[in-house]
Amino acid sequence: MPQDIVNVTAPLTSTAVQALVAGQQVRLSGTVYAARDAAHKRMAELLAQGLPLPVDLRGQAIYYVGPTPPPPGRAVGSAGPTTSGRMDPYTPALLEAGLACMIGKGERSAEVVAAIRRCRAVYCVAPGGVGALLSRHVAASELVAWEDLGTEALRRLEFRDFPLVVAVDSRGADIYATARQPYRRD
Predict the structure, then answer these.
(1) How far is CA 16 from its chain centroid?
(2) What is this structure's pTM?
């Protein structure tokens, strides 16, 4: 497992995505979109109808988060990751639309891992349970679409050295699958 921390900037180039390796630590800076279940459903519905999305997903990263309201002097309140599997029904369509990186917590379905490999994207995990600390790596937040969804609205965030681990790389290597191997008793 790689031990060097890699600095990456979003939006991501295909070269940057393909250089990432499962297990690698990453510090992500740049523009990242925040979206949870309800926003994913709306984006998937728009794609299914052949309609444009509120943002061009090519090369973009989406963080599965619904940040809480910000305290004074901060861009967001607590900003911990939500369970990624809830986005699995919508993820292949978004990857086909050019999404390059997803950020959340927990493993992904076999269908999503196959779509990540096919579309040459990457899935990263953020540490759960430390949303208040992670919020310190969000320098700005702006509503993009679907204000009616409240904390699940589509937002544009500006990350500064946001700590991540590559969970599934563009070749389909999956830390959730490989980490279990030493402990299996088949």
Answers:
(1) 15
(2) 0.93
Task: List, for residues 82-112, the tens digit of each pLDDT value.
Answer: 999 999 999 999 999 999 999 999 999 999 9
Domain that holds residue 77: 5-172
179: in domain: no
pLDDT of residue 184: 60
Give domain status of residue 42, yes or no.
Answer: yes
Q: What is the CATH number of the domain that holds 70?
A: 3.20.130.10
CB 65 within 8 A of CB 75: no
Within a domain: residue 74? yes
CA dist 163 and 128 (Å) reads: 11
Look-up of token digits 């990186």:
101
CA of 39: how far to CAs of 42, 61, 146, in Å?
5, 14, 8
What's at 84, amino acid-wise? S
